[in-house]
Amino acid sequence: MFSSSKDTPKDSHTGDYIFQYIDQWSEDIGSERIVQVVTNNATNNVAAAKMLKEKRPKIFWTGCTAHTLDLMLEGISKLQYFSKIIEQAKAVTIFVYAHHKTLSLMRFFTKNHDIVRPGATSVMVVLKIFSPLVKVLRLADGEKVPSLDFIYCEILEAKNSIKEASNYGPIFHSTIKSDFEVMEGFIACVETFYHGDLEKQDRVVNHELSLYKNKIGSFGRTLAFKGCENKDSEFDPDNDYIEDKLFTSTQEP
């Protein structure tokens, strides 16, 4: 549901300015109704996030995943090894496609294939390193399906693909349940969501998580296993989706 917007072309978008706007908006709506604020990773937004965290510690402030990946690609492209190859590839491409005779010769001898062909070339290494991140970027920037439930696994796959392409050390295949970074993030999430309530934090982290991992209680029911198998991206608690599903299932012979 859209709440409001603000036209601020003449204002200086400092960290304090953004914080004041978000804080007032939180006050108007009610901070207890707000779970998360998402912005890009600009310095002023990071500064505003720190201010909001101090005043309203229960609200999550998250950097945009697509913007983060975009910055990663930009940063990698500026590394000396990659930037040199990218500039050389650009120069060759511009030269070939800017001269009709050269382009005709290229198409004749390559049988209309692309300039870059599979092989152990520096350009192919660069492409193999960039392609996995570009794939994740497109998934994160999509509008049809929320990426929260699968984006971390896609990032892990991208990391492994990059390691294979660059021959960089061993490839580690980790799972969500055993990944240290994921667990640290999970605990930080619980601490924020139940800020100041150690009893609830203890219950979620030290008790209910164990039930989930070991499939005990409600997590061990057949219905729970079925729910894990059938992810439905069209779920919307605001409509009659659940009632329709239940009604359909009861009508089946």
Automatic annotation (TrEMBL):
It comes from the Eukaryota. Residues 1-92 form the DUF659 domain. This is DUF659 domain-containing protein. It comes from Brassica oleracea (Wild cabbage).
